[in-house]
Design goal:
The protein is of the alpha/beta class. It contains six helices and five strands. A three-stranded parallel beta sheet has the order 1-2-3, with helices on one face. It has a two-stranded parallel ribbon with strand order 4-5. Strand 1, helix 1 and strand 2 form a beta-alpha-beta unit. It starts with a strand and ends with a helix. The structure holds coenzyme A.
Length: 169
């Protein structure tokens, strides 16, 4: 049985990420989406909230039946080794992603030489979407429906309403 680990912050998950997850199901029997934290980032959604948002977004998608969504506080490669997964998938949108992805893949290879990183090109129609862009649009009450699943758009609205009512106090 072939398996792949797709790690990321997913803060929040976007249509671009969902597209990658579904495409991975066409190559691998088992797709594990791992919600992990990068020490370089501050998160809008907690890890548990991000897990729920991905699970909910995938619920209506029949192709998502073999996708598992989980989280970890360990190194990504440690999780892969524990789960006996030999492939980590990362998505590359434009050349701008390359340097960061290359450094991460190189570090992961040094940490776990038997775990390979596979790069998957994002669909060009999602090439400009990023989680931070979506968060920024939502913070100014802009429309995010065309970038993210509907449950994520709703969660972003709730978060920004809560934050703006907190700011008014
Ligand atoms: N569609 C939409 N957005 C995409 C995308 C796609 N197809 N492909 C990449 N992106 C965007 C994301 O939205 C995100 O944008 P943002 O920076 O504006 O939020 C960015 O590309 C990359 O984020 P993501 O894919 O979520 O990864 P990350 O770099 O935040 O997370 C971890 C990296 C969590 C996987 C990594 O830090 C990790 O493995 N951490 C665990 C600890 C560890 O093992 N550290 C050592 C790593 S060498």
């Amino acid at each position: 049985m072939s398996a792949v680990l797709y790690p990321g912050s997913f803060d929040p998950v976007t249509d671009g990420h969902i597209d990658v997850m579904i495409r991975l199901t066409k190559i691998f029997d088992r797709v594990v989406v791992l919600i992990a934290d990068s020490p370089r980032k501050n998160y809008l959604f907690s890890r548990d909230e991000r897990v729920e948002l991905v699970r909910e977004a995938l619920k209506k998608n029949k192709s998502a039946a073999n996708i598992e969504v989980t989280s970890s506080q360990k190194l990504t490669v440690e999780f892969a080794l524990k789960e006996k997964i030999k492939v980590i998938a990362r998505s590359v949108r434009t050349v701008a992603d390359w340097e960061y992805e290359y450094a991460m893949a190189d570090a992961n290879r040094k940490l776990a030489p038997n775990v390979e990183t596979l790069f998957i090109m994002a669909d060009s129609k999602f090439g400009f979407i990023s989680s931070s862009l979506v968060r920024e649009v939502a913070a100014f009450n802009g429309q995010v429906e065309e970038f993210v699943p509907s449950n994520v758009a709703l969660a972003l609205k709730k978060k920004s309403n809560r934050q703006s009512s907190g700011a008014k106090k």
